[in-house]
Amino acid sequence: MMKLFMNISLLCLFLSASSILGDLQVNFYNTTCPRAESIIRAVVQKHFNKDHSITPALLRMHFHDCFVKGCDASILIDSTKKNKSEKAAGPNLTVRGYNIIDQAKAKLESQCPSTVSCADIIALATRDAVSMAGGLTYNVPTGRRDGLVSDINDVNLPGPSLTVSQALGFFTAKGLALEDMVILLGAHTVGVAHCAFFRDRLFNFQGTGAPDSTMDANLTSRLISICGAKQKSSSLKSDQTGFLDQNTSFIVDNEYYKQIMLGRGVLQIDNELALDSSSASIASGLASDSTGFLHKFADALVKLGNVEVLEGSAGEIRKNCRVFNTPPPSSK
């Protein structure tokens, strides 16, 4: 686990966007659990102080949750003998940060039992981690409820080797547009990728027997020295990793876009954003507007967090984020 002990100048700007998004509302817990957001932030801050890599971890968890059955915390459910949950799916095997959600939930249950949903904890914890890493402190509409289904067979996420048009299909299916996709992929401003997800670009790109010629040669050489030609272990968790942003790897900023415009995108989809005629101008605009990116990224995360949410009497408020309150019929 990578750690960086450094001082980051936080940009604490508050968005002036509408305080209501759909039926979700900013400060939803003001009456029922007034300290909910401060409790979650304190837990996130404690972890961030020790490990800045929790920012990409929580961003990834939030994305992987929302892109399956909507933002319903279904990714948090543990598998049982009778039901393999979303956690068991290949793309989720390296998702981490569950302990952060667990700790926040335990503190909330002691203060306000059966009140704050696990889905809202994910959204709020992600916001806090982003702001601690240099992003905006933006308003998160809350009021989500937790889902009652978590099935490995439902997991179908966009992969790192897709073209722009292929990836866009996943986003439009969730009500998100091309610009939303380009902005949300800005999450790659922090974090790492396992070599398994880009090794082909280094040695045998698309069956050519050669590296991807569109990748910066110096970056190619550096990644080859990190990854080697073959994965040394069959376990993805033990596979080597490379930074997705070569310059400011732990800071939420627009450096990612500057890098991909220079052919320094690590994943193929990163590279494609800068090369595809439909997305190149969006990526270029974000590369030249650091403040604009921070605002647009915050807005896009709010929009992501509203994907197919459960509200009102739908779903439940879990007491333990890893377990349904009442096991569904299929798992009895």
TrEMBL record:
Please tell me the species this chain comes from. Answer: Dioscorea alata (Purple yam)
- Give the enzyme's main class according to its UniProt record, as a single word: oxidoreductase
What name has this protein been given in UniProt? Peroxidase protein
Record keywords: Oxidoreductase, Peroxidase
Q: What is its EC number?
A: 1.11.1.7
